[in-house]
Amino acid sequence: MQRYKKLLNTPILLRLARLTKYYHLVLSKIICNFAAMNVEIERKFLVLNDSYKKESFNHSHIQQGYICSNNGRTVRVRIRDNRAYLTIKGPTPEGGLPCYEFEKEISLEEGTQLMRLCEPGIIDKVRWLVKSGNHTFEVDEFFGDNEGLVMAEVELTSVNESVEIPDFIEKEVTGDSRYFNNYLRIHPYKTW
Fold it and tell me: Are 64 and 75 in contact (CB under 8 A)?
């Protein structure tokens, strides 16, 4: 515990340390009781070619790790360029496509420190943003153990919302757990 004393010297890290000790109980209560929590609805696709790079209006480097992940619930740390975020995700009571998501920006120093607490398997990727109709597709080009995998996702406001699919999309993989980032950190693409 002595070696973590310096690491756990900020209020958010102290709270997170307590959370990870009792994360099953605390996370369940957070997920179930936050009526104001965002509901995320997204579709995922495999990408056919790299034409998305020419169509992209922005891109950023992302590294993310998981402090805990269990029963469809995750606590994730993400560093995106020079900003850091702490995200809690979990299933809605209805299950299926939508999921609860709570995200808070934290300092880059906190994010860097929290990455040291993550479970093995850090996700490393570049995210490219591509406009298609009224939506923005986030195209993730993976590196490290997941090199060669390129996926796109688009966030929706409802499950039945129509979306204009760009030409670089190969096929839909929404709901296929092999393409969840949490799965990829444990079962990297290079091992498939």
Answer: no
Return the exposure string of 4-23: e unless at least 16 CB atoms fall within 10 Å of the residue's CB, then b.
Answer: eeeebeeeebeebeebeeeb
Catalytic option among 4, 22, 23, 66: 66
**Range(s) of the domain holding residue 43:** 2-191
User: 129: domain CATH number?
Assistant: 2.40.320.10
Structurally, the chain folds into a number of domains equal to 1
In a 10 Å sphere around its CB, with 0-12 CB exposed, 13-18 middle and 19+ buried, how is residue 24 labelled?
Answer: exposed
> Has 66 been annotated as catalytic?
yes
The answer for residues whose C-beta is within 8 angstroms of residue 55's C-beta and 6 or more apart is 130, 131, 166, 168
Is the pTM here over 0.70, yes or no? yes
Give the pLDDT score at 90: 85
Distance CA 135, CA 152 (A): 12
